[in-house]
Amino acid sequence: MATIHIDGKPYEVEADDNLLHACLSLGFDLPYFCWHPALGSVGACRQCAVKQFRDENDRQGRIVMSCMTPATDGTFLSIDDPEARAFRAGVIEYLMTNHPHDCPVCEEGGHCHLQDMTVMTGHVARRYRFTKRTHLNQYLGPFVNHEMNRCIACYRCVRYYKDYAGGTDLGVFGTAANVYFGRETDGVLESEFAGNLTEVCPTGVFTDKTHGEHYTRKWDLQFAPSVCQHCALGCNVSPGERYGEIRRIENRYNGSVNHYFLCDRGRFGYGFVNRKDRPRRALARRDGERRAVAPGEALAHAANLLKSARRAIGIGSPRASLEANFALRALVGAENFFDGHAALEGALVARAVQILRQGQVRIPSLRVMEHADAVLVLGEDVTNTAPRIALALRQAARGKQAALAAERHIPAWQAAALADIGQQQKNPIFVATVDATRIDDLAVETLREAPDNLARLGFAVAHAIDPNAPAVAGLAAPLAAAAQRIAQTLLAAERPLVVSGTGCGSACVLEAAANVACALKARGKKVELALAVPEVNSIGAALLQPADAAAHDLEHALQLLASGAADVAVVLENDLYRRAPRTRVEAALKNARLIVLDHQMTATAEAAEVVLPAGSFAEDDGTVVNHEGRAQRYFQVYDPTYYDAGAAVRPGWAWLMDLRAQLHQIAPDWGHFDAVTAATAQAFPELARIVEAAPNARFRLRGLRIAREPHRYSGRTAMRAHLSVHEPRAPQDPDSALAYSMEGHHGYEAGERPAALTPYAWAPGWNSPQAWNKFQAEVGGHLRTGDAGVRLFEPLAHSTSQGYFARVPEAFVPQPGVWRHVPLWHIYGSEEQSARAAPVAELAPKPYVALNPADAQTLGVGENMLLDVSLPGTALRLPLKLKPALPRGLVGLPAGLAGMPYVAPGTAVQLSRVNVA
User: Fold this and answer.
1) Could you give the CA distance from residue 333 to residue 326 in angstroms, rounded to a whole number?
2) 41-50 tens-digit pLDDT
3) Do 388 and 505 meet the contact criterion of CB atoms below 8 Å apart?
4) How many CA atoms within 13 Å lie on the side-chain side of 52?
5) Which of 9, 190, 324, 590 has the maximum number of C-beta atoms within 10 A of its C-beta?
6) pTM for this predicted structure
């Protein structure tokens, strides 16, 4: 610690901070542009000037840039010194000479760091009356809009995009004061994290194009604390709503998870909430025709189906909340509940949960992954299955720069110095996958093998680390040598990390990764094991399953329906056609009657006799459990009936509660959301702490609810003028401590608002995303009231594990004329909900079949030629994509894309050339 003196008062700060970081952490308002907590200091903008004095007797002092000055013990400085204030005001005035006077029409207005800093410096009039420099703008794709005339040349964008996110197609062109930030030519930004430019940029150069299509000022949006729905990492988000539509997604800071950044799928994939073809009325089939009916009639019809059933089963969903899945389980009984994962997928998630439960090694948060100094990625294409992990691994690789700088006593915030010292040096990352990945540029070594061979590699690495781990017989010499190199590197590291997951469809790969982590722990290493699972609540859904989970997978449910043992199924937020072959689903549904609860009109909903419109994440409250076992709460953003009195959209758990009450002629079990959460926690000891994920609905701050709307929110009467000119009472929320109103608590004061109940970032004078500084115990660190969520699993001091996994698979050998299927995941298109958003669908690839060029040569086919693909129960005709990295004997099919059927990993596939006359 160090004592510094600011305007005559002493303060204790971290000795390795710079003065800007220290002042902001203490709560002072000090303007800046080029500095960012995640990017470090370069001193480019000169906006953070303060006056530094030699000692308490110095009256003259000198102007220094606070972001480039260390907070050493005994430092004396002044923020309010007249000369420092004049210097900062002068910098703003110079920046404004070329900045357009377009705040009223700029999409960044009211959300703009430049506006905040201009007001902070007191700049109120412009003296420059001459021609401004102008630029042409570029097309950067469907996500990000470009308006180069607003640039102040702070260099944040390229530092983030190139240095932090690893992008290569956006840079700075020109010299001195005439510079241009963009691509060499128009085109879609290649980075999967380009959308963060909209928050990194302090002006309106890069803005959210999806928001611009239905633009609303930040102060006119209604927000709620939420969790991204598009993978299992649980990034925190702030969805903003107006007129019953989600207008944008902003990053919601969580110091343990995503902190400042999201992937583009999470930021721009919200369009499924706004689709016009969503079911918003209850639907029932009468005389062979489906029609809209009153909610009571739909419930009565569904109850009659259940009453007349020989056996009714419930199929839950890994994209539905714990509470909704539990309510379904309560309706049909534990013995009739299935969590909704595809059969193999469910087994893989169950194995991941088993590893979590054993508690041998810690499952890291995203923030912890960034500090690893050696990484093995085994079998998982993380950019496409769990994108934010890929960004975390980039920071782990860059950590070598900070380590080299520390040896020379250079602080980690000196960004330019770190880059000069580190040059191209990186912490070692090994990437062993079935195909090339977007993080191969980080790797010291890449290996491409079939899933079984990847597992054998992992088992061999574990054995090389700890001879007590199972050995691998007959391992090919190149893999054996690679295993030794990986083992030696991981053993030499202080914070090794193993990353794997369910993506390649192999339980043996998961087990091998667990063995590597356990072997490192046995050798005394502080190791972390990250396992990517498919969906937002995959872990939570699996935790609701009994010990004999195999008897409760989707395949068993379909067998019950196909055999007639069960004749009614209640399906919760699940499209069965995405999780089993079409012929298998159609055989199961042929004589069964379906009750579907969903917010999308899926193929399964089309086949239903009753459709009950469930709320999406924006219209519902729920708890989900991410990959690390962190339970987090998302809250309803808006009441869908406020703009449409006829809408029947309700939370899934509420529909199921009323259906159970009607079926058994009893009073509803749970009167509000907290009650169903408590019932879930009581029924499952492992979930007991989910009640701690967020304060309950009775929570108040200074007697007030938390306001969902900023205090300048306007137009409530006008929004419903087409319905009535009389403004109704704001909707009441019995299920949370949040208010559908600007009336309520807005404060950010330390120790007050819990992180789980913070809908958006705002503080007096801070309207941009940099307002999160005011909520943090230390800028860039954890939130003052603790990060949102509660971990359900922690490593045990004395593990109760049964030891190493011992099921080493046989080596994969290609078979002539038969190829083994491996799923190829795509960040855009593979995930069900985001694929329904138009901008994401625009970037999704078309269906294809992938082969190694040598295999293609044996078939006499080339790039883009058509192949007939024979699968069990179906056949496809697809264009060929050649993938040199894909091992021979494997055929890759894109998972989840529109037009692609479900194909289980490992399925035997036959291929033949299409002869065109």
Assistant:
1) 10
2) 999 999 999 9
3) no
4) 20
5) 324
6) 0.96
